[in-house]
Design brief:
The protein is α+β, with helices and mostly antiparallel strands. The chain is 29% helix and 28% strand. The structure holds adenosine-5'-triphosphate and magnesium ion (3 copies). Its EC number is 6.1.1.15.
Length: 571
């Protein structure tokens, strides 16, 4: 590739809205351009990176026995109604109508379509196991699209779906994907950790996330450096019910007993928006001084309220726009029975112990000690104050899965997720096969996602400097750039550069020759920003002594190499 015939357009400044390095650097390097919030054009350089990531993922999926197909982005609502997700998914699911007013969705994942394929294609145990995957555009109408490719609304995901005869065989399929993911993220050149993850509404214990370690990550992971234990803190929190709301935390601590012998979730809302009419959630107690005697209420507030008003008003005014959540509402909003909440009809003055606006909430978990019947803890979502992180270590140490020892906490970016589904979807869509005895049995399923476009951003978060991006060689848009000094003036430089370029190309190296008429300073700055791992500089001065300069992106100074050795040195 000759740069003069390619499209390179670097920017001095990043857009003001770009909060994290990957967003800033990808925009400045001309890899992405915004079309709308969370929706980007992958510019030529950006697309090369995505294709590299895709190819590594594809190779390892194929090696692991998965079979590629391609499912549609636009999917009929009927299948989503059948699975129940048309109702359950909430606002992240983009629903559209065609000209005949028929409902469709833009796929956020493809469990429905693949299960429909499976029920039509798989007839006999002889066809199993099977694992289908595709690499396709996804759409999720994220509440807060931000950080560029990290949390887009339109993004590229690899999603695979395994089908097995029974649980034991499904476990083997899961393990094969887990192993493939280990190989994929190693080949991508990323520092990552596989962590146990929350299985949310599906339940069961088999779910792992693959987290790229980076300070800007939105997830917190806890791990024990001495053992195998590593978990997303969402899981650890669900197990231990850690109170973690900044200002309210002190109050919560007074009424919480993190070491309670038995905790149970009383309400859980993970990524699922509350009903439109609920504006905020309030936890209140009628006896803050003696938690053992206290009753705790969960209140769903319907409007904007002065909490003092709520506090002093004995909570009788059911008509005044706030009221206790009814069992049915909690069931509806959280999908679980509020068995341990205070009696709905008790009227007493209360003390607010925590409150949260629904709009700012990505997760909500509330727990209670089933033995003392008092309040245990609440998790309001991801935006954990940094100061609380240290405190969490002690609490998480109580997780039964962690067999003792000091725990460490890191931030991570979720780039992959493997999930054992069991018969959740096969049951809903009646996807069966005939067993050896001729009787129909439900397919056992697993699903396995990788955020292709998010990986590009995660790699940058993990590796950059003040000059720009530092790509791992495996996913760099070009492996090497030749920078001729005086291309337009010196025939010797031109010939040497062009010969080396052809030789490198013949060796299969993805090489860029920068034949643009720009000053050396600008040329170097561009390629440092773009993050090409290796640069060869060719100039008359060096050529007089028969040398060129070769410098790795991470290297402080260049190596002087004889022209004759340059090719070997660069390979
Ligand atoms: P998150 O917790 O970050 O919202 P998720 O758990 O909702 O992610 P999954 O449903 O597990 O995501 O999807 C599989 C993978 O798709 C994730 O591991 C992540 O790499 C990627 N992904 C999910 N949401 C986005 C997004 N909005 N933008 C880019 N990649 C995403
Ligand atoms: Mg999500
Ligand atoms: Mg997640
Ligand atoms: Mg996930």
């Amino acid at each position: 590739m000759h740069a003069s015939k390619y499209h390179i357009n670097t920017l001095k400044e990043a857009p003001a809205e770009a909060e994290v390095k990957s967003h800033q650097l990808m925009t400045r390097a001309g890899m992405i351009r915004k079309a709308a919030g969370g929706i980007y054009t992958y510019m030529p350089l950006g697309l090369r990176i995505l294709r590299k990531i895709e190819n590594i993922v594809r190779e390892e999926m194929d090696k692991a026995g998965a079979i590629e197909l391609l499912m549609p982005v636009v999917q009929p609502a009927e299948l989503w109604v059948e699975s129940g997700r048309w109702e359950q998914y909430g606002a992240e699911l983009l629903r559209i109508k065609d000209r005949h007013q028929r409902d469709f969705v833009l796929q956020p994942t493809s469990e429905e379509v693949i299960t429909d394929i499976a029920r039509n294609e798989i007839h006999s145990w002889r066809q199993l196991p099977l694992n289908f995957y595709h690499i396709q555009t996804k759409f999720r109408d994220e509440r807060r699209p931000r950080f560029g490719l990290m949390r887009g609304r339109e993004f590229t995901m690899k999603d695979a779906y395994s089908f097995d005869r029974d649980e034991a065989s499904a476990q083997s399929s899961y393990d094969a994907m887990y192993d493939a993911y280990m190989r994929i993220f190693t080949r991508l050149g990323l520092t990552f950790r596989a962590v146990a993850a929350d299985t949310g509404s599906i339940g069961g214990s088999r779910s792992h996330e693959f987290q790229v370690i980076a300070d800007t990550g939105e997830d917190l992971i806890v791990y024990n450096p001495d053992t195998q234990y590593a978990a997303n803190i969402e899981l650890a929190e669900a197990a231990c019910l850690i109170p973690q709301r900044g200002a309210a935390t002190d109050a919560l601590n007074k009424t919480s007993t993190p070491d309670a012998p038995k905790c149970e979730l009383v309400a859980q809302q993970l990524g699922k928006p509350l009903s439109d009419t609920v504006k905020s959630i309030v936890l209140a107690t009628d006896n803050p001084d003696d938690p053992a005697q206290a009753t705790i209420w969960l209140l769903l507030l319907r409007g904007d309220h002065d909490l003092n008003e709520v506090k002093t008003s004995k909570l009788e005014g059911f008509e005044n726009g706030y009221r206790f959540a009814t069992e049915a509402e909690i069931l509806d909003s959280f999908g679980c029975v509020p068995g341990y909440l205070g009696p709905i009809n008790t009227i007493k003055p209360v003390t607010i112990i925590a409150d949260r606006t629904v709009a700012n909430m990505s997760n909500f978990i509330c727990g209670a000690n089933t033995e003392g019947f008092h309040y245990t803890g609440v998790n309001w979502g991801r935006d954990l104050p940094e100061a609380k992180v240290a405190d969490l270590r002690n609490v998480v140490a109580g997780d039964p899965a962690n067999d003792g020892g000091q725990l460490a906490i890191q931030r991570g970016i979720e780039v992959g997720h493997v999930f054992f589904l069991g018969d959740k979807y096969s049951k809903a869509l009646n996807a069966t096969f005939l067993e050896t005895d001729g009787k129909p049995a439900l397919l056992q399923m697993g699903c396995y996602g990788i955020g292709i476009s998010r990986i590009a951003a995660a790699a940058i978060e993990q590796c950059h400097d003040e000059k720009g991006i530092i790509w791992p060689k495996s996913i760099a848009p070009f492996e090497l750039v030749i920078c001729p000094m005086g291309w337009h003036k010196s025939e010797t430089v031109r010939n040497t550069a062009e010969t080396l370029y052809q030789e490198l190309k013949a060796q299969g190296v993805e090489v860029m020759l920068d034949d643009r008429d720009v000053r050396p300073g600008i040329m170097f700055a561009d390629w440092e920003l773009i993050g090409v791992p290796l640069r060869i500089t060719i100039g008359d001065r060096g050529l007089k002594d028969g040398i060129v300069e070769i410098q790795a992106r991470r290297q402080e100074a260049a190596d002087k190499v004889a022209v004759a050795d340059a090719l070997q040195h660069a390979l």
